[in-house]
Amino acid sequence: MVGIVLISHSGPLAAEVAVLATQIGGTGVPLAAAGGTDDGGVGTSPGLVEAAIGEVDRGDGVILIPDLGSSVLTARLMEGPGVVIADVPFVEGAIAAVVTAGTGASLEAVLAAAEESRNFRKL
Amino acid sequence: MGAGDLDTAFFAAWIEEIARTVGVEKERLTRLDAAIGDADHGANLDRGFTAITQALAGTEPDTPGALLALVGSTLIRKVGGASGPLYGTAFREAGKCLGDASEVSATDLAAALQAALDGVQRLGSAAEGDKTMVDALAPAVRAMSRAAQEGKEPGEAIGAAASAALAGAEATVPMQARKGRASYLGPRSVGHEDPGAASTALVLVALRTVVTR
Fold this sequence. Notes:
The complex is a heterodimer of chains A (123) and B (213). With 123 residues, chain A is of the alpha/beta class. Chain A has a single domain (3-119), classed as Phosphotransferase system, mannose-type IIA component (Rossmann fold). Helices cover 46% and strands 15% of the residues of chain A. Chain A has helices spanning 11-25, 46-56, 70-78, 90-101, 107-116; strands at 3-8, 31-35, 62-66, 83-85. In chain A, strand 3, helix 3 and strand 4 form a beta-alpha-beta unit. In chain A, helix 1 crosses helix 4. Chain A is globular, with a radius of gyration of 13 Å. Chain A starts with a strand and ends in a 7-residue tail after the last helix. Chain B has one domain: DhaL domain (Serine Threonine Protein Phosphatase 5, Tetratricopeptide repeat). Chain B contains 8 helices and no strands. Chain B has helices at residues 8-36, 41-58, 64-78, 83-98, 106-124, 134-149, 154-170, 195-211. Classes of the chains: A alpha/beta (123), B mainly alpha (213). The interface between A and B is medium-sized, with 16 and 18 residues.
């Protein structure tokens, strides 16, 4: 199953989006939140992101969903074989990715589903 | 070794001077960042370079390339803001470019600075005019490459690069940000110097300070 890492400037924001995505998409998906700095401040920690990737990697690929700024730059440092960034809205993209990953879809399919969330209309 | 070539001790002195000036200037950098960003640039860089000073106190790498690579990886791990990955990549790529040479000529340094710029642009996708550190770094690279091609010694090439970086940072004031957190502000980002360009100028001025000692 594809793993998903939520990378935010804020620890609580990443954790709560993970809670929401799990509630909608089911608990079977390897999902980790990597928000905030090592000491719990606002920012991004490459160490936390690296650990989160290791935690969710089941061998089928990992999708990184960053919010903005240094989260994106830190995610880019972690890109590699089987580790890709989804350039998507943080909340909608996370939910779409978790729902699709839960079906056992491939890395490409999960990435495509996350990217489709760009076009979700609320009204 | 050519006239004025630079050794590991020179690069260690440069890093020490950056750490000192970041400590002195962190309030100004944070003020610039408060205007158009999230008010942590000075504090973040200070945390990064303080960690580097501690790392270097334990072990001094034996080539300029290894030293810059250590600086880069420490910045990536310790800074926590956008400047960590960006400056970290810049120093790491510069270090990689210098390889295991024990002395660095003006031509080598120009190539290393170009590698730093390439790394920053690959990571952040910023072009000149986007109101980022690239607006200080790119003119500095051009000035240093030109000086090296003209056969200038490292001291003179560094002087030209520092002046170009300062002018480049100054030129970000009227720009509207198109990259980074400041871009969310749109037209409100106009009228402020970009903090990343300002700190890039500071890093190159530190290099000039050390070479003219």
